[in-house]
Amino acid sequence: GSAGLRAFGHPLLGAAVTLAGTDGAVLTGRLSAAQQPWLADHVVGGSVLLPGTAFVELAVQAGDQVGCGRIEELTLSGPLVLPPDGSVRVQVAVGEADGSGRRSFTVHAAPGQP
């Protein structure tokens, strides 16, 4: 709270912040097979990948934060690979509404702590 974040309480996302000067938001979380054991069930080619349905869930949660209740299109440019040990930090960003009310949505990931 003192850093401007508010607790989010979602199984994949733990905190959210509204972007100053805009109506966009960023939600953050940490993904790991140890913390979310069901993720370990999604193995492709020997690697644990975040399933597409989880990306949809991230988009829905981000949209709900800014009053956007519809996903028009979701394109995955590459897989989000989870390490066998440790975690991945994720940031889910939803941008400002354009003239037609549409918003951009991005997911960024970086290695987390072991």
TrEMBL record:
<dbReference type="GO" id="GO:0006633">
    <property type="term" value="P:fatty acid biosynthetic process"/>
</dbReference>
<dbReference type="InterPro" id="IPR050091">
    <property type="entry name" value="PKS_NRPS_Biosynth_Enz"/>
</dbReference>
<dbReference type="InterPro" id="IPR042104">
    <property type="entry name" value="PKS_dehydratase_sf"/>
</dbReference>
<protein>
    <recommendedName>
        <fullName>PKS/mFAS DH domain-containing protein</fullName>
    </recommendedName>
</protein>
<dbReference type="InterPro" id="IPR020807">
    <property type="entry name" value="PKS_DH"/>
</dbReference>
<feature type="domain" description="PKS/mFAS DH">
    <location>
        <begin position="10"/>
        <end position="114"/>
    </location>
</feature>
<dbReference type="InterPro" id="IPR049552">
    <property type="entry name" value="PKS_DH_N"/>
</dbReference>
<keyword id="KW-0808">Transferase</keyword>
<dbReference type="GO" id="GO:0004312">
    <property type="term" value="F:fatty acid synthase activity"/>
</dbReference>
<keyword id="KW-0511">Multifunctional enzyme</keyword>
<dbReference type="InterPro" id="IPR049900">
    <property type="entry name" value="PKS_mFAS_DH"/>
</dbReference>
<dbReference type="Pfam" id="PF21089">
    <property type="entry name" value="PKS_DH_N"/>
</dbReference>
